[in-house]
């Protein structure tokens, strides 16, 4: 939703949104309520596919990469400092004489961003509310050096980009999973939430793999995956892994699912990945996944698969294998009397 901070700033007249203004929203959440911008012409930039689809379904003009100028650019502060700075630089470039509004929670670093911005420009106003702040300033071409770096080579030759998950190299969970990938994985499978391609490229080394669908919601990460993987057996999909694909088509699924919504741990995301994997697999299909030790996935796995076991693990991670997805029972229709 449009944050209560922004709504408060507009409703109290602290921040003015002139009728008819061209407004660009950079990376707002999927559940954003745009009523506060109802008298403006709104365009949304969104790299996450679930949010992109949500805005598209609402009839909002949405793009992966905004290029048209705007009178006002609103930046929803992301978790990544590099991406946050990159979005502010992009906002200035797209509104060279306009107003830049930055809105975020304390847990996402709004205080440090505000301090850094104040060191360069005069801030016209700010509102502190709901464990965060919204502030705004006039663009003055002071943030070009904050421009988000292009994808580049990091550790061990992998190409990544600041602002995506595990941008400095492979995360420990994925590395642990690679070490114990079963050689029984054969045929056509999917890497759900495949990021910039680390698991997929190692899956290609298994002798029985014929085709891999890498499914990733973050378009920036997917662009890196395209450069990390050069193999005709791989197809890249910009999609929500929890809704992607046709039922019963895959021999196997491998995944390291996300478990955060903003900075708040959310086990329901990984649970939705498990349910999706069961839906996608053939009757004798196999799921192999890695998860943090504390995450409660076993109940969902038991409800979705006939056989579940822990392949390997340590105090931080567990490698789980599940076989033979259970048939989805059709909903019972109640007769009306």
Relevant terms:
2 domains, Rossmann fold, 7-stranded mixed sheet, alpha/beta, single chain
Describe the protein.
This protein is α/β, with parallel strands linked by helices and 337 residues long. The protein has two domains: 4-146, Vaccinia Virus protein VP39 (Rossmann fold), CATH 3.40.50; 152-325, 3-Layer(aba) Sandwich (Rossmann fold), CATH 3.40.50.150. The protein is built from nine helices and 18 strands. It has helices at residues 4-11, 49-57, 81-94, 110-118, 172-179, 198-203, 219-228, 267-280, 298-304; strands at residues 22-26, 41-45, 61-63, 72-76, 99-105, 125-129, 132-138, 152-153, 159-160, 187-192, 209-216, 234-238, 250-255, 260-261, 264-265, 281-292, 305-313, 317-325. Strands 3-2-1-4-5-7-6 form a seven-stranded mixed beta sheet, with helices on both faces. A seven-stranded mixed beta sheet has the order 12-11-10-13-16-18-17. It is elongated. The mean pLDDT is 93. Keywords: Cytoplasm, Methyltransferase, rRNA processing, S-adenosyl-L-methionine, Transferase. One of its GO terms (molecular function) is S-adenosylmethionine-dependent methyltransferase activity. InterPro entries: DNA_methylase_N6_adenine_CS, RsmC/RlmG, SAM-dependent_MTases_sf, Small_mtfrase_dom.
Work out the oligomeric state of the chains in this entry: single chain
Helical residue percent? 25-40%
Q: What are the low-pLDDT stretches, counting only 5+ consecutive residues below 50?
A: none
- Name the strands of the widest sheet in spatial order: 3-2-1-4-5-7-6
**At the fourth CATH level, what is the homologous superfamily of the largest domain?**
Vaccinia Virus protein VP39
How would a textbook summarize the main sheet? 7 strands, mixed
CATH class of the largest domain reads Alpha Beta
Rounded to the nearest angstrom, the distance between the terminal CA atoms is 41 Å
Assign the CATH topology of the largest domain. Rossmann fold
The rough form would be described as elongated
Order of helices and strands: HEEHEEHEHEEEEHEHEHEEEEHEHEE
Helix and strand composition category: alpha/beta
GO biological process, one term: methylation
GO molecular function: N-methyltransferase activity; nucleic acid binding; S-adenosylmethionine-dependent methyltransferase activity
Pfam family, one: MTS
Domain Methyltransferase small: 159-321
């Amino acid at each position: 939703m449009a944050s209560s901070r922004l709504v408060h700033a507009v409703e109290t007249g602290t921040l003015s949104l002139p009728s008819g203004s061209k407004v660009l929203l950079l990376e707002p959440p999927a559940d954003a309520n745009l009523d506060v911008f109802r008298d403006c012409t709104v365009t949304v930039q969104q790299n996450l596919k679930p949010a992109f689809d949500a805005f598209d379904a609402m009839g909002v003009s949405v793009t992966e990469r905004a290029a048209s100028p705007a009178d006002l650019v609103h930046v929803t502060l992301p978790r990544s400092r590099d991406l946050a700075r990159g979005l502010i630089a992009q906002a200035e470039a797209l509104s060279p004489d306009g107003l830049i509004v930055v809105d975020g929670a304390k847990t996402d670093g709004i205080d440090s961003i505000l301090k850094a911005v104040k060191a360069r420009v005069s801030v016209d106003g700010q509102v502190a509310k709901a464990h965060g702040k919204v502030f705004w300033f006039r663009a003055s071409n002071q943030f070009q050096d904050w421009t988000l770096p292009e994808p580049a080579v990091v550790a061990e030759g992998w190409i990544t980009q600041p602002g995506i998950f595990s941008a400095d190299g492979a995360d420990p969970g994925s590395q642990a999973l690679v070490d114990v990938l079963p050689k029984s994985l054969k045929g056509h499978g999917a890497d759900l939430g495949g990021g910039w391609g680390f698991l997929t490229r190692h899956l290609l080394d298994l002798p029985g793999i014929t085709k891999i669908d890498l499914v990733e919601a973050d378009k920036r990460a997917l662009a890196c995956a395209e450069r990390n993987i050069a193999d005709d057996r791989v197809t890249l999909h910009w999609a929500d892994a929890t809704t992607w694909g046709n039922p019963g088509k895959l021999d196997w699924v491998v995944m390291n699912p996300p478990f955060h919504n903003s900075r708040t741990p959310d086990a329901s995301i990984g649970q939705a990945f498990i349910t999706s994997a069961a839906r996608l697999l053939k009757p004798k299909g196999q799921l192999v996944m890695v998860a943090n030790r504390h995450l409660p996935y076993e109940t969902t796995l038991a409800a979705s698969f006939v056989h579940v076991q822990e392949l390997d693990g340590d105090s931080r991670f567990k490698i789980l294998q599940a076989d033979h997805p259970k048939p989805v029972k059709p909903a019972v229709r109640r007769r009306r009397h």
